[in-house]
Write a structure and sequence with these properties.
about 290 residues, alpha+beta, Heat Shock Protein 90, Actin, Chain A, domain 4, 3 domains, 3-stranded antiparallel β-sheet, 8 helices
């Protein structure tokens, strides 16, 4: 058993079974125990079948949780047969690299299982393209940084210790049989200003990209703006929440950007995301507001 598989196995075994699943299993077991034990062989076979189904449900659910939360686990089981469930996101690129300019870590997903193969290919192609661009731009910045560093008295040996680090990664925000929401992030150690975020929200029932307009209708800008302003007002006594008084969103005549980033969380609510410095100091990072339907 290699180290990678051992690590994946450990992560798999440490995954917590969702509370709802526990409740459903306990309910089923209780119902089974309450049945009269007639001693009939057919009845025993049914009970055995039910127990097997419960065990399979537990294993399948834990497998899916592990697949969608652990890149190591996903990578290890990628080639394994999956009965009754096709995962919608699998890590298919997961590697580290180093050259004379940068050191990098890449982990990006591949969307699978969509009926619309054209959309599936388009999303995967876009993810790959964005990653390639991010790495290329980061290396260009690193080349400029290294040139300036050498020209101001630094040495190749010293730069090797200060080499720029690049990271491309993803995070799944929601994953179930109806929707898939995740974000691709790319950043380097030169400056946080170069960090990029790309959000994907997919309706798995219709194989369509989810938009704010498709959720809230044509008036989505006004609806979300009002919701965000209300939340900002409610936070005015919270010293940890500070917003620019002259930001567009806070001015009554302005509204959120039509192309604002958003994702959908596990509660199926939209979460809009403002860029760093867009409406608040950099110390608050990217500011999020959950829009309760």
């Amino acid at each position: 058993m290699n180290n990678e598989f051992k690590k994946a196995k450990k992560e798999f075994e440490s995954i917590e079974i969702p509370q709802e699943l526990n409740e459903m299993i306990n309910k089923t077991i209780n119902e089974n125990n309450n049945q009269k034990n007639s001693g009939n062989n057919q009845h025993k076979k049914k009970n055995k079948l039910k127990t097997g189904l419960i065990a399979g449900l537990v294993a399948g659910s834990v497998f899916v949780v592990g697949l969608n939360t652990s890149a190591t686990f996903a990578k290890t089981v990628y080639a394994a047969p999956v009965i009754g469930y096709i995962a919608k996101v699998l890590t298919f690129v997961d590697y580290s690299f180093s050259n004379d300019l940068v050191e990098g870590e890449v982990s990006i997903p591949k969307v699978e299982g969509l009926t619309d193969k054209e959309l599936e290919a388009k999303i995967n192609s876009q993810i790959q393209e964005k990653m390639n661009i991010a790495l290329k731009e980061a290396e260009e910045r690193a080349a400029e940084y290294k040139k300036a560093y050498i020209e101001t008295g630094g040495t190749e040996e010293e730069y090797e210790k200060k080499k720029i680090e690049i990271k491309v990664d993803y995070e799944i925000k929601a994953s179930n049989d109806k929707l898939l929401s995740f974000v691709i992030t790319s950043c380097d150690s030169i400056a946080a200003a170069y960090a990029e975020y790309t959000y994907y929200n997919i309706n798995l029932e219709t194989d369509e990209i989810i938009t704010l307009k498709s959720i809230f209708g044509s008036e989505y800008v006004d609806i979300i703006t009002d919701n965000v302003l209300k939340q900002i007002e409610e936070q005015k006594n919270d010293e940890t929440k500070v917003y620019f008084e002259d930001s567009n969103i806070i001015q009554e005549s302005e509204k959120i950007r039509e192309d604002i980033d958003f994702y959908i969380n596990e509660d199926k609510n939209v979460v809009v995301v403002f860029d760093k410095y867009e409406i608040a100091p950099g110390s608050m990072g990217r500011v999020e507001f959950e829009i309760i339907n």
